[in-house]
Amino acid sequence: MAFKVVLMLGVVFLAQQSLATGFDFTTSYARKALTLVEDYLPGHYNDFNPHPTSHGERAFCQTGEESCFSYDPDSGIGPQCWFKIDYPRNKCCDERNSFQSPIDIPVNQRTRHARNRLRYRRNHIKGELENNGIYPKFEPEDDNIRLYGVPGTHRSYIMDNVHFHFGPRGDERQTEHTIGGHNFDAEAHIVHHRSDFANVSEASVHKGGIAVVAILFSTEHGSKSPAFENIFRELGEVEDFEDEENVCFLENILIFIKRIFNLEEDGRCRSALIPTFPAPPSQQKVHRKCLLHTKDSRCGEHKDEIYLNPNELLSECAVYYNYDGSLTSPTCSEAVTWLVAAEPTRISKETLKALAAVESRFTGDKISDKGNLRPLQSLAGREVKKLRFPKRKHRYH
Ligand SMILES: [Zn+2]
């Protein structure tokens, strides 16, 4: 542990020295710092090895849940390198897989009728919006918001969060899923775990353990959803990202050094390990607050007390594409029953601007600089069903 602290102090010192000596003097300090960081990260430049080490430091932050990964293909920790992230059961880029997401959804199938309505039994929930530096994320306060009617099981699914994906500004592709090659303007994922599991993590090793409802947004088609509008209205409140958990601390040092000295990535994949510091007593208090998601938490921007009707998050047209796939970010667990709405929900251009302004966890970047879209994955012979669910009784306009 002491070694890590000394190492990090050394890196910071070298970086500061390189700054203090002037940009035009020499890059040797920066290169030393870079080498130190790279040497520290065991297995970084090893041969391809998608399997996690048995001992190991995992790419987790202090909460034990987050790892540092990027959507920047040039960063060495971009999507093509996610297999390097040292998670247990990391399924990213597992070449044997055939269940990865997102995909381009084929559209030539006939529509089948689902027996049960897809719905939540609750019509009012309260939650909070936060910026975790990967995407803006709404989390319900109540951990028992149940979705019924997910095909293939009689069990209900408990809502964990609603988060948003969008592409780099100006790029044609702005959604993770595409439908018949068609791209929309942003995508929401409503993530649930099956009610017989304690949480997403536990559910993520069981096929069908997770259900994600994907809603595609368009500035030209569909109706606005009051529930999404209630979330979008608060985006400005979570625009900033505060890196209190140091998830990408090491990466940010690398970026800092590289930017100053104009150093290029060499294109090789790195896993991004985060040293775990012993938290001094004062920080332990902060950490507890983070876990409780209190308003004063210093773990990033929060906006609490957002009220919405979860049924209004679901697609008004009630037709969904259903397939077996994976989470679209590490660990890419192949446990997901996907329900991708066939018709878009309306989004305003102002909301797209508000999404584009949200800061990423990489210092000085917006999420929209690189976007947060995983490249499309192979369908690999999977069947995608088109399901029409019985309509909801109440519709919004
Ligand atoms: Zn997602």
Explain the overall architecture.
- The chain is an alpha+beta fold and about 400 residues long.
- The protein has 2 domains: about 1-90 and about 245-280, no CATH class; about 90-240 and about 300-390, Alpha carbonic anhydrase (Carbonic Anhydrase II, Roll), CATH 3.10.200.10.
- The protein has 8 helices and 15 strands.
- Strands 2, 3, 4, 5, 6, 7, 9, 10, 11, 12, 13, 14 and 15 form a 13-stranded mixed beta sheet that branches.
- It is globular, with a radius of gyration of 22 Å.
- It binds zinc ion.
- Zinc ion (ZN) binds next to strand 7.
- Belongs to the alpha-carbonic anhydrase family.
- InterPro entries: CA_dom, CA_dom_sf, Carbonic_anhydrase_a-class.
Descriptive tags:
alpha+beta; binds zinc ion; 15 strands; two-stranded parallel ribbon; 2 domains; 397 residues; Carbonic Anhydrase II; 13-stranded mixed sheet; 8 helices
The shape, in one word, is globular
| H/E element sequence | HHEEEEEEEEEHEHHHEEEEHHE
Number of helices: 8
Strand content: 15-25%
Instruction: Specify the CATH class of the largest domain.
Output: Alpha Beta
Number of strands: 15
Distance between the first and last residues' Cα = 57 Å
The main pleated sheet reads as:
13 strands, mixed
Classified in CATH, the superfamily of the largest domain is: Alpha carbonic anhydrase
Sheet/helix structural class = alpha+beta
Percentage of residues assigned to helices: 10-25%
Rounded mean pLDDT score? 79
